[in-house]
């Protein structure tokens, strides 16, 4: 057990005997914590313990410094009776309050806490991973309370409920589960809370880490809960009757339940004219087919099925492949891995150097590889098209999963041609059919079929046609739109 | 609680189970056995299928949705049910494995001639196993997904409209060298798969729409067969169809796109999906029956045993024609099951005046 772990009191487990809080006990608990502030006001017989980096200076001045600065000792009990002060009778609870940004006040034998939490926070900026052309540009930050305010600002309803949980044995990270009462299915809410409470990891650093702990099938390569940094996206999920979870310290929020096809929609679709939104969505699904099959089909055709290439194209293809000494599968894997290396390097490097990587990868390696006879230029077109198509998918998590699945298909196509490709696709469909998200089908609205939902899944129909909330949310209040054309 | 099957999914399951690679040779079978305009024979056979579904619907109504096993076990002693179950397991597991071997052998006409057929079969078996163990609800979801992936293939027939000639259909109806009875049996096997709807009794979400969805499933199969066969009869001459083993496969090879041609190989790959659904449904039915004999056994183990048994049996036929023979005999056996089992169940239910309360 680490030193930190010893210091942090555990709330779980069998009921512990309550110990009355005292200044000595508190200081002993925070021994060797150089950042802890201890202040004594002998004139008032008042002592304070807090972390100044967790408390807001404005709040501290307003709630403590001003009232107590001009008070006499006999006024203190009256001041402590104000509603913002809570009397604490348990030492463990007090420690937890201090860690959560409260100021502990010791007056004679009694102990009080006041919540003046206001940590330093990044300013609200545009999301770098989910860029939009039209629509709101603000995105979530790492402070959960600020994220809550961003949502509250958009949903001015007392029906927006927030449940607070704590995860991480050591980090005690706050997780806020949000839903709209009357829209969300309470079975889903209960199931979500249950899963969050069952997490027994020592630390949760991000929402994308938390989702992996509550997945229906943690072994799957496909994400079962989408995460977003976009405030409007989170609100649209809530209004659709889904659950949203905010993890303190993470700029991403989780929504649940979700279907496979939800990962292909973007809030932009609703901000454009319906025809454009529909075209974009269809383009994304076409991109999905291209990214998953294009390279694999190239490998399959050039390894086993040359008869499928038309005569005119055959000459170009044979000429292009004639200098390549490897079988198509090696050639394709080599180039796919290179593309992945470039992508990973580009993602890790600062933007300015990242551009250099693009030039090095795109021009130098691509051109040189063809001239050196390592790959054919037709394959470069196939691999580049697949890579570009994969980036069209709005969810980074889904895009990465699909790219990984593509490798499996390339290998199968290299070993067994079209038969292998179909075998791989069948395997993928079977896997997806078995997946669930919060126990609801991952392939909805295809299986189980909900034709009405298709209007807002494969296309983005005009708003007057989108009359109902998605069936997956199992909401009791289905109608979301009473407009007529 | 078990998840129930929506009528739409039952319809798709029935359609996907019925259709398969047999469609490739169906125009040939029709021409050989029904003569000129033999494609209309599809309607005749479909009517017989509807009659069979009607008989099954009587079982469903009298049995009030109870499973066929419950009906049998409530009236028949184990001495009688045991051999019935063994026959069902044998027929279904062997049908499943032969369907795969048939698919693999036809594929080997086009590609992978040097690859061992049993290796390719093993790969399909593995995929089928992974689906069987997930249960009927996931099977139905996968079947629906496969349906959407394959349904667009019907549009391919548009390629042949300009080459289609009504004159090739001739004014003769069922003339020439015909074998209505034996041929009818052979063509009937192309429709088999609907009879497994009696395994879905306990899983029906909507009892009122259950039988309707089975009829609809058969209707889609009939329409699909009709369209494909009509196109073949209008594209090829009658003699050509009689002499071609797989007219539809040859037909698909005529499709040319700017970037790709001879896509019959790829298109035949899509039939893997319908083949998987057929295999999975037959093997799942065998597994469910097996579970009645050994109720305490793990279903995953039972599915493994069934597929292994099928795999061993599949070693015996060595050529495509041998597999065809096996499938024909198994088809006859399945025909017996399709008509015989519902009639037996009706007899039991009538004697007992409806199903006993469970």
TrEMBL record, chain A:
Pfam families: GerA (PF03323)
One Gene Ontology term from the biological process aspect of the record: spore germination
A GO cellular-component term linked to this record: membrane
Record has Phosphoprotein as a keyword: no
Keywords of the record: Membrane, Transmembrane, Transmembrane helix
Transmembrane regions listed in the UniProt entry: 282-304, 378-397, 409-432
Tagged with keyword Amino-acid biosynthesis: no
Family according to the record: Belongs to the GerABKA family.
UniProt name for this protein: Spore germination protein
Organism listed in the record: Paenibacillus endophyticus
From TrEMBL, chain B:
Main localization, broad class: membrane
Name the UniProt record assigns to this protein: Spore germination protein (Amino acid permease)
Signal peptide coordinates: none
Family: Belongs to the amino acid-polyamine-organocation (APC) superfamily. Spore germination protein (SGP) (TC 2.A.3.9) family.
Keywords recorded for this protein, A-Z: Germination, Membrane, Transmembrane, Transmembrane helix, Transport
Places the protein is found: Membrane
Organism: Paenibacillus endophyticus
Membrane topology: Multi-pass membrane protein
Superkingdom of the organism of origin: Bacteria
Residues passing through the membrane, by range: 12-30, 36-63, 84-106, 118-137, 144-161, 181-203, 215-238, 266-285, 297-317, 329-351
BP GO terms, sorted: spore germination
InterPro entries: Spore_GerAB
Gene Ontology CC, one term: membrane
